[in-house]
Structure formats: C-alpha cells, structure tokens
Task: inverse folding
C-alpha cells in the first residue's frame, strides 16, 4: 500500500541467537547461582553490562491496594553512579552537600523551575527533606512523576543519608508496571557470582516484604535475569524464594 510504513522486524546478532539456543530458547529454568553464571557468560559486550532482573508478580496493578513499590539497599550496589538534586536548607543542606549531592537548594531552585529551567531533568533522582514539601509542591505539576515521594524513599527527615545511599549506588527503587512486572538492576557483569547472588537475594526479599495483603495465590510467578545486550535466563522461582527468605533483617 502506498504511503504505509512497514515496521522493521528487530534482528539479533548470530552471537545473541546462539546464546538463546544454548539457554534452551528461554524455556529452561536454572537455579539462581547457575542463572547468574549463564548471564555472566553471555555478557560479552565491550562495556560493563548491567545485570537486571524481571519479576512477574501475582498482583493486579490496576487496583490501588495491590500496587507494589519500595526501596531496597543492595549490599554490593548496582555499579551505576547517579546525579542527585536535593531540596534542603540549613544543616540538612550542608550535610547533603557533604554526602555528595550534585546540587542543593530550596526556594531558589523552585523559582528557576517556575521560570522554565529544564536542568532538573538531567538529574537521576530528586530528594527532599520532609520540611521542603510545601515549597516543592509549587512545582509538583512540572516535576510530576519525578516529584519526591515518601513511598519511594526520596522524602526523608535525613536527606543526606538518602544521598549517601544513592552515591554508593546501593539504593534501588522498584515499582510494578502495568503488566505486573518489576524490573530491577542488581549489579554489573564485572561483579562476582557471589556479589550478584547476594544482591539478588536482598532484592527478592524486599519484594516479598512489599507483598500486598490483598494479593492471593502465588506471588512470585516468574523470575528472569539478563545482561544489557544478552538474552534473559529463567530462574527457578521456588529456589529463588528460599534464597530470599534466608536474608536476615
């Protein structure tokens, strides 16, 4: 048909397809440790690939009482450095700067945003002290989803501690998407198997703790792990849950 664009089918490299075939075409299930080993083996890009998990949950995100979200501090971090903007005053502002915040302010930043400053979009996270919320609310309509939120841990009585965790690359926010899946980074391909395994256990433990009371039936339904450029590997859910339940604290 004239004028009609035909979508191009995404093509993967031969190396990628060979890796998929070797992994059972996505159908084979592995223990958490073996899955991590397989993913590290397939992470052959010229950069240090991110290692991420995708967890299908037995929840209905359309229902407000089944929304799963939270924050977890991974023992070995994620390997990713993030820029942080902090709304704070006085001693809290000084402490945030000392903790490594990339920019700190209060009314002055709000005024810049109101005048059209787009620089706030260059920050990975926006953090605020609890007393800053009345001030930040003036630009809530602009920040929208980036607005600091107590549920995501970006509003705190101790913003410097939040900044410290972020700068250590240990802090990870998670939120279930419309399909009922949570995506989380758990490290880099350069991490050891043990480091990735411990991060995986802590991440899954956080998801278990965030289980809504109204969620019925099996909560952890499917768990996959993959590198940035590699195929996903399925993890045995029962073994993964046992691993997560062993996490102390």
Result:
């Amino acid at each position: 048909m004239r004028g009609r664009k035909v979508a191009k089918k995404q093509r993967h490299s031969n190396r990628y397809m060979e890796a998929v075939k070797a992994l059972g075409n996505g159908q084979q299930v592995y223990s958490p440790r073996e899955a991590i080993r397989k993913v590290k083996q397939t992470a052959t890009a010229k950069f240090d690939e991110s290692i991420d998990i995708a967890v299908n949950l037995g929840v209905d995100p359309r229902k407000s009482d089944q929304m799963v979200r939270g924050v977890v501090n991974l023992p070995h971090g994620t390997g990713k450095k993030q820029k942080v903007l902090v709304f704070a005053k006085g001693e809290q502002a000084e402490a945030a700067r000392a903790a490594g915040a990339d920019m700190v302010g209060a009314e002055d930043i709000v005024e810049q945003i109101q005048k059209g400053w787009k620089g706030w979009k260059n920050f990975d996270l926006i953090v605020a002290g609890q007393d800053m919320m009345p001030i930040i609310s003036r630009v809530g309509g602009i920040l929208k989803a980036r607005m600091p939120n107590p549920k995501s841990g970006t509003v705190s009585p101790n913003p410097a501690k939040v900044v410290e965790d972020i700068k250590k690359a240990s802090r990870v926010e998670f939120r279930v998407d419309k399909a009922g899946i949570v995506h989380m980074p758990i490290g880099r391909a350069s991490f050891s198997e043990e480091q990735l395994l411990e991060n995986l256990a802590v991440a899954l433990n956080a998801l278990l703790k965030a289980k809504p009371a109204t969620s019925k039936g099996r909560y952890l339904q499917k768990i996959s792990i993959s590198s940035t450029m590699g195929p996903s590997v399925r993890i045995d859910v029962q073994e993964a849950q046992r691993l997560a339940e062993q996490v102390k604290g």
User: Anything to note?
Assistant: Residues 79 and 194 are 15 Å apart (CA to CA). The chain has a mean pLDDT of 90. The chain is about 30% helix and 20% strand. The domain at 24-79+169-245 is CATH 3.30.190.20 (Ribulose 1,5 Bisphosphate Carboxylase/Oxygenase).
